[in-house]
Amino acid sequence: MLLTQSALSLAADIKAKKISSRAVVEAHIAQVKCVNPRLNAVVFDRFAEALREADAADALIANTTDPESLPPLLGVPCTIKDTFEFTGMPQVVGMVSRRDVYGQKDSYAVAALRQAGAIPLGVTNTPELAMWYETYNRVYGRSKNAYDRGRITGGSSGGEGAIVGAGGTPFGLGSDVAGSIRMPAFFNGVFGHKASPMLINNEGHFPTAHGQTLNYLSAGPLCRRAEDLEVLVRILAGENSAKLKSVKDVDISKLRVITISPERGPKATFDILDAQQKAVDALVNQGATHVTVDLPLIDDAFMIWSSLLADSSSPEHSFTAMMFGEYHIKHPLKALVTMAVKGKKSPHTLPLLVLTLLEQFPNLATGQRQRFVDLGHQLKQQLNAILGDDGVLVMPTFPEVAPRHGMPIFKPFDFVDCAIVNAMELPSTAVPMGLNAGGIPTGIQVISNQNNDHLSIACAVALEQATGGWIPPWRSWLAELPETTVIPQLVQEPTKAVKKTVTRKKAKLD
């Protein structure tokens, strides 16, 4: 099925002329049109341009005598997070003040994907300033989970998570400074990779990073199949791709699979602990050795992450300054009072105003900030020693499955299992581990030492083979559709993309 294949599989079929790029692109456009009104994931499309690019890819293939010389993703559709500059496309990042900002050129990551032959279908939604783990803003509104519209899709790559999870695209481009790839991947049942520091160039991304903060921010892929992770990271890494070691050379039986015991940080639910145990068991069944360690400093994860972030950035580059033009606590306080007392609608969302207040905390007590910075350096040394070159840490991506809309404001620190990984400058791969009893995705993250991205990616591939990976949410969609609706016709060897009006009872989606 076109809507379940990996990007690599689609690229191979297109180059072998088993199917045209146009048919693949048309099928994914039809899927986006079907699900996006329910998910609000893709906020600006370029379908007409994508079809022209697909025709150009087909013409190139028809005229070549050496298919191996063609770009690796030629003719394969994708989507782009709106934080990346992309020629002619909006780069709003959920901010009312940026609603008229359009890309003048392609960012490094977008250019790398397009040079590899990928065809972007459009750009996807983010929270305001890409700084919250629910995707909602005053410009485009709220994005919804691919499996349950009453639940969050995550953030800040929330639109990407939803549309990839819904089968609308084989992969998408996201970015991660505190879990912004891994949480949306987890909430929507797909794979995502946050790379080692500076492996992937962040040029053209907004918000921008400066100084040491560059080591915390990473562009990276979200994809429905694990086999795409390595090739996508290599393409995005460009001239740095040689730093990524070969995934196929990893012997799972020689790895140490590490878990933290007793449990630290936010308390995980049964669904998450069960997913973690299943992941460990699956890797152990392939010969890996299970090791437990205690890391008490994980209990201070939020203060360590926020203090390191504050220590590595200047006030003019703060989120407060980007929102209000000046770094001062009076701005978020005034906006909150205006919203609460006067009842005036703010151009800013409540979570972002709260976050700008939280941003002030490490600076209000510089002595305490330095203490947590020191603890962060201590934790990093511990993790580097524990992981070595043969260890992977399996831990929750988030303490529960995707929460209901609006609930993150009551648990603002629950993203710290991801954020601490960025602060420690380690690579991490989000891996889906099936659905819970309510049909909502569960999963874990696999963390390896810096520049050992190949180990966590190899574990993702092994876990997909053992447990199945992404499970398309077709049936849960179908139950919510009207009696008669237009859905994509999924066929094995289509010569062209087809849509068919069907009744809910007669549709076959898998």
Structure in words:
The protein has 510 residues and is of the alpha/beta class. The chain folds into two domains: 7-299 and 377-485, Amidase signature (AS) enzymes; 300-371, no CATH class. Helix content is 37%, strand content 15%. The protein contains 16 helices and 15 strands. The strands form three sheets. It has an eleven-stranded mixed β-sheet with strand order 1-3-2-6-8-7-12-13-11-9-10, with helices on both faces. Strands 4-5 form a two-stranded antiparallel ribbon. The chain has a two-stranded antiparallel sheet with strand order 14-15. Helix 4 (108-115) crosses helix 7, helix 9 crosses helix 13 and helix 11 packs antiparallel against helix 12. The chain is globular and about 65 Å long. The model is unreliable at 487-510 (pLDDT under 50).
Structural features:
15 strands, 510 residues, Amidase signature (AS) enzymes, globular, eleven-stranded mixed sheet, single chain, 2 domains, 16 helices, two-stranded antiparallel ribbon, alpha/beta
Quick recap of the structure?
The protein has 510 residues and is an alpha/beta fold. The protein has helices spanning 7-15, 21-39, 47-62, 108-115, 158-165, 182-187, 227-237, 270-284, 301-312, 319-324, 330-341, 350-364, 366-387, 416-423, 453-467, 474-480, and strands at 42-45, 77-81, 119-124, 136-137, 141-142, 171-176, 191-194, 218-223, 256-260, 289-293, 391-395, 428-435, 441-448, 484-488, 499-503. Strands 1-3-2-6-8-7-12-13-11-9-10 form an 11-stranded mixed sheet, sandwiched between helices. It has a two-stranded antiparallel sheet with strand order 4-5.
